[in-house]
Design goal:
Length: 168
């Protein structure tokens, strides 16, 4: 499993763009994790799935609400990563009103999730291999803080905990 001090895994996530601009076409666009984290402070949080109850009611809204606090404390970008495709993440971004606040990044084949060692097997529930719920503070491509939730929990990967770590 990835740990504090490690370099983030080499992987490509996908982001759905509603409008063309900044080198991005409409639709899914690749995000090279190594390049996108270089020289930046990223508050990344990952969760089992788009549109799932805790993720939609608490996890994403908390980061949207704390956007200004995180930005003013030195976070360059906030990322939400889930083992879903870019189209689902794009639809969820619209529903959660994350535009300009949280980048909704798809890890459709779970390559990033597998590389972190933070997989969650939900095959018994018909959901297949997913991401564990966690948050990670990334500074210049290195893990500065990691908060992994216990099974079924939502206690340490929330925006308030991340804000405390950014300020600390």
């Amino acid at each position: 499993m990835i740990k504090v001090g490690d370099t983030v895994p080499t992987a490509t996530l996908m982001e759905f763009s509603e409008v063309e601009g900044n080198g991005c076409s409409i639709g899914p666009n690749p995000v090279d994790v190594a390049k996108a984290t270089a020289g930046k402070t990223i508050a990344l949080f990952a969760l089992p799935g788009a549109f799932t109850p805790t993720c939609s009611a608490k996890h994403v809204p908390g980061y949207v609400e704390r956007f200004n606090d995180l930005k003013s404390s030195g976070v360059d970008e906030i990322w939400c990563v889930s083992v879903n495709d870019a189209f689902v993440m794009g639809a969820w971004a619209r529903e959660q009103k994350t535009e300009g606040k949280v980048r909704m990044l798809a890890d459709g084949s779970a390559d990033f999730t597998k590389a972190t060692g933070l997989t969650l097997d939900l095959s018994g529930r018909g959901m297949g291999l997913r991401s564990n719920r966690y948050s990670m503070l990334i500074k210049d491509g290195k893990v500065a803080a990691l908060n992994v939730e216990g099974p079924g929990k939502f206690e340490v990967s929330d925006a308030a905990t991340m804000l405390g770590q950014v300020k600390g």
